[in-house]
Amino acid sequence: MENVRVIPVLLLKGMGLYKSIKFKDHKYVGDPINAIKIFNEKEVDELVFLDITATVEGREPNYDMLTDIASECFMPLCYGGGIKSLSQIEKILYCGVEKVSLNSQAFENPKLIAEASEKFGSSTIVVSMDVKKGFLSGQNVYTMAGTKNTKKSPVDYAKQIEDLGAGEILLNSIDQDGVMNGYDLDLVHAISSNVSIPVIACGGAGAVQHFKDAVNKGASAVAAGSFFVFQGKHRAVLITYPSKKELI
């Protein structure tokens, strides 16, 4: 775990931060700037901010908020939500954000991955994959904040977005999101063993051991939400981050 990035994923909804369970039941957990200040003190490896309503509402990213967030953030920052064009990506990077995460638009307009990777560099382009198990079929990739089933196989999609030039995959299990009983390790292994780009495991972490389990299955980095913002069985809000010693 010494060289593995451990990344908090924070969900923006309006002007506040929220955390979900299986992409539903959103609970308010605080102000973005306050959270960033705490994570600065904890010397966090990297942060991911996802605006979970921008795409569904058909609006652009909140560039003013992004500028405020990036100016406070001492660690690399990735942003996703409402991104549809190269010009929007350019605006986001101009705000001080290092990476952008494409999700719904990456599926609807795959050439955006290739064009963005060519213009801004593949290391700047992350593609977020939200995966859910079907009742009768296997797992499928979902878009539109987990509401639209693309009927696409996660492995096939991962190979496609790698070929298009994505620099990383943010792999999120909808079924495990916010449950805190561990990642979908079979999914992590399936994706990481079929692509050569870094895979960030997300969805389900509730203990440091879960991070290690994901790395053992091939994840290049690990991400979580609830683990960093909730404390105890009653899910009291407490923003925290494990020490370097705990992560060894």
Automatic annotation (TrEMBL):
Associated pathway: Amino-acid biosynthesis; L-histidine biosynthesis; L-histidine from 5-phospho-alpha-D-ribose 1-diphosphate: step 5/9
Catalytic activity from the UniProt record: 5-[(5-phospho-1-deoxy-D-ribulos-1-ylimino)methylamino]-1-(5-phospho-beta-D-ribosyl)imidazole-4-carboxamide + L-glutamine = D-erythro-1-(imidazol-4-yl)glycerol 3-phosphate + 5-amino-1-(5-phospho-beta-D-ribosyl)imidazole-4-carboxamide + L-glutamate + H(+)
EC number: 4.3.2.10
Keywords: Amino-acid biosynthesis, Cytoplasm, Histidine biosynthesis, Lyase
Domain of life: Bacteria
Function text: IGPS catalyzes the conversion of PRFAR and glutamine to IGP, AICAR and glutamate. The HisF subunit catalyzes the cyclization activity that produces IGP and AICAR from PRFAR using the ammonia provided by the HisH subunit.
Quaternary assembly: Heterodimer of HisH and HisF.
UniProt family annotation: Belongs to the HisA/HisF family.
Protein name as it appears in the record: imidazole glycerol-phosphate synthase
Organism: Pedobacter flavus
